[in-house]
Amino acid sequence: MCGRTCLTLEPNEILKACRYKTSKFQKSPINQDDNKSEDLNDRKECCGHIKGQYIEPEWRSEFNCGRKYVPSFNIAPNDVTPVLISRDHFCDDGDSKAESSHRRLLIPMLWGLIPFWHKGDYSKHKLTTNNCRLERMLESKLYNNAFKRGHRCVVLCEGFYEWQTKSPERAVYLFYMPQKEKAIIHDRNTWEPEDINLLKMAGVFDVWQDEQGDKIYSYSIITYESNEIMSWLHHRMPAVLETEQQITDWLDFKNISNEEALAALRQPVSALEKHRVANLVNNARNKSNLCNKPIELIQSEKTTMNKLMSTWLNLRTPSASSKACKDNKDDAKNHNLLSTTDDNESEPENRNAKRRRFV
């Protein structure tokens, strides 16, 4: 299953991280000179892009009843995150295929699908929809309709957290895609948005509308039985899309049938990286930047901080022996002052006594 994710990029950075290559152009082997103008037109992708170029998705802002995407180290269900969908969802049937083919949009959506048929307050449907089981999706009243309408999406994150159900201590791990050699997923100083390999999960989405006509886009993450990568930790895992072809096929609901798309999902991811994190992520309100760091690093930093604090306190606070010595000196000083005062007070009496002896 997938119950918590990490995505710390701003919208403009996510666009850079989601750059993708347009469909490759193949020259016609016949009459190449005569068909130069035709080839040039064939090379055009939608919106004037050339096939074979790397381009960014388009950002499409949605009101979502006032809910906004906020980058976070600890994203939980009912939070809003950017999701990839096909541009075809916003194209009329009369639009030419070249205008929208394979184009991608980034849209902020609520995590936890709200079925379109729900009536009343969207937050009170009392349904657990953050995950959708692949085995039951076609039979589910919640997901079947959305899936058949081509509402396939790709959920983005830097990594997802998973708890070890087969251990009494409930250890937590962050799973993420393999990165470039020098890129460390939990250290933002080691990578740029265009270099990061985001983790992409297959999902289904729906559009709910309230009585005033305001819409909320929401999604569920598809899960299936874990393979050897995660079976030691949990019996369920998200449907990770590992290649660009998988992503393209999953989003292209007009040309790739539901049966073909589902068949592609049944190819489990072959490689994921992981490290154990602290139980800070147990509380969804904890958004600390320590959430995605390895637990060994946190413990090391904590030990260092404790040593520094101890050293600082020793410098600021006098030791017990020096304090006792100071107290003794103060007592002696006070005793001398008292003795001097007593002597001064007794001097007049002594003088009077001496005078009486001589009278």
TrEMBL record:
Full protein name: Abasic site processing protein HMCES
Pfam families registered for this protein in UniProt: SRAP
PANTHER family given in the database record: ABASIC SITE PROCESSING PROTEIN HMCES (PTHR13604:SF0), DC12-RELATED (PTHR13604)
Region (Disordered): 319-359
Matching SUPFAM superfamilies: BB1717-like (SSF143081)
GO BP, one annotated term: protein-DNA covalent cross-linking repair
Organism: Glossina pallidipes
Family, as annotated: Belongs to the SOS response-associated peptidase family.
InterPro entries: SRAP, SRAP-like
Sequence ranges of Basic and acidic residues compositional bias: 324-334
A GO molecular-function annotation: lyase activity
Keyword DNA-binding: yes
Alphabetical keyword list: Covalent protein-DNA linkage, DNA damage, DNA-binding, Hydrolase, Lyase, Protease
Keyword RNA-binding appears in the UniProt entry: no
